[in-house]
Write a structure and sequence with these properties.
alpha/beta; 268 residues; single chain; 9-stranded mixed β-sheet
Length: 268
C-alpha cells in the first residue's frame, strides 16, 4: 500500500440531524447530534487510512480542548497527526443534516492552516507516494511537492496562486462557483484538471486538450448525507494515482468511495 500525506485543515464539527431546515425564527428539535473532527484535510486523511494507507496529516490546531480532541479522534481512525499548535481557537462548524441527505454548514472562527515555517517533520513527505493539499502557505505547498504525486484542492487558494511548483492534479466541484473560479486562476499550474459533477460523475482534462469522463457509482445503500463526498472522492483519487492507477481507474475508485460516503452520517 502507498504511503500518503495530507497537508491541510481540520475543523471540529457538530452535526445535527433534522427533518427539515428551520425557517426564520423557528424552533426545531434535532433528531440526533454527534461531533467529529472533519474539514477537507481531516476527511481526506481518514479516507486514505480506511483504504489501507499509512497516512501523515500535517495540519494546524488550536491549543485547546477541541484541538486535542480532534487530534485524538483522528489518531484513533489510523491517521498519524503532525500538528502545528496555535494560540487561536480550533475552528468549529455546525452542520444541519436534512433527512434527504442535504446539509447546511455554519463555520465559527478562522481556518487554521499549516505553514511551511512551522517546525514539523516535513522531511517525511520525501518518501510519500502521494500527497493531497487543501490548506497552507506557498512554503507548505513546496514541502508537499516532495511527494511523488501531488493533488490539490482550489480551497488552498493563495498558496496555489503564488509562484511555485506544478501540481499533478487539481480536483474541484463543477457546481461550486468559488471553486471553479479558483480552479480557473490556477489551471496553468496543474497537469490535470478534475471536475466533479455529483450524480453525473465528472470529467478530467489536460492542457494539451486530452481528457475523459467517469460515471458516478451507485451508493451501496440509501443516501444519507452529502457531507464529505467531494473530499472522499479527492482522497481516493489521490490514493489511486499514487498506486499507479490510470486516471480513469483513479476516478472510478474516487467515485466508488464518494458514493459510499453518501450513505454515512457525517464525515467518514
Amino acid at each position: 500500500m502507498p504511503r500518503m500525506s495530507v497537508v491541510g485543515h481540520v475543523e471540529w464539527v457538530d452535526f445535527l440531524e433534522v427533518d427539515r431546515f428551520p425557517g426564520p425564527g423557528e424552533l426545531l428539535q434535532a433528531q440526533r447530534a454527534f461531533a467529529r473532527a472533519a474539514g477537507g484535510g481531516g476527511v481526506a486523511a481518514v479516507v486514505m487510512a480506511e483504504l489501507g494507507a499509512e497516512v501523515d496529516f500535517f495540519c494546524a490546531l488550536g491549543r485547546d480542548s477541541l484541538g486535542e480532541t480532534a487530534a485524538g479522534q483522528l489518531r484513533q481512525r489510523g491517521v498519524r497527526v503532525i500538528p502545528a499548535w496555535r494560540d487561536q481557537p480550533t475552528r468549529r462548524a455546525i452542520t444541519l443534516l436534512q433527512a434527504d441527505g442535504e446539509r447546511t454548514i455554519v463555520t465559527i472562527g478562522a481556518r487554521l492552516e499549516p505553514l511551511g515555517s512551522d517546525e514539523l517533520d516535513w522531511d517525511r513527505l520525501r518518501s510519500a507516494d502521494g500527497a493531497y493539499f487543501t490548506a497552507g502557505d506557498p512554503q507548505a505547498l513546496a514541502h508537499a511537492r516532495q511527494a511523488r504525486m501531488l493533488v490539490a484542492s482550489p480551497r488552498a487558494r493563495s498558496a496555489l496562486v503564488a509562484d511555485g511548483p506544478c501540481i499533478d492534479a487539481l480536483v474541484f466541484s463543477a457546481g461550486d462557483r468559488d471553486e471553479c473560479e479558483w480552479a480557473r486562476q490556477v489551471a496553468g499550474r496543474a497537469r490535470l484538471s478534475v471536475a466533479t459533477e455529483g450524480a453525473r460523475g465528472g470529467t478530467w482534462s489536460e492542457p494539451s486538450g486530452g481528457g475523459g469522463r467517469w460515471r458516478a457509482q451507485p451508493p451501496p445503500g440509501p443516501p444519507h448525507d452529502a457531507f464529505g463526498c467531494g473530499d472522499s472522492f479527492a482522497a481516493a483519487f489521490t490514493f489511486g494515482l499514487a498506486s499507479e492507477m490510470s486516471v480513469a481507474e483513479a476516478a472510478e475508485l474516487g467515485a466508488s468511495v464518494g458514493a459510499r460516503c453518501l450513505t454515512r452520517a457525517g464525515a467518514p
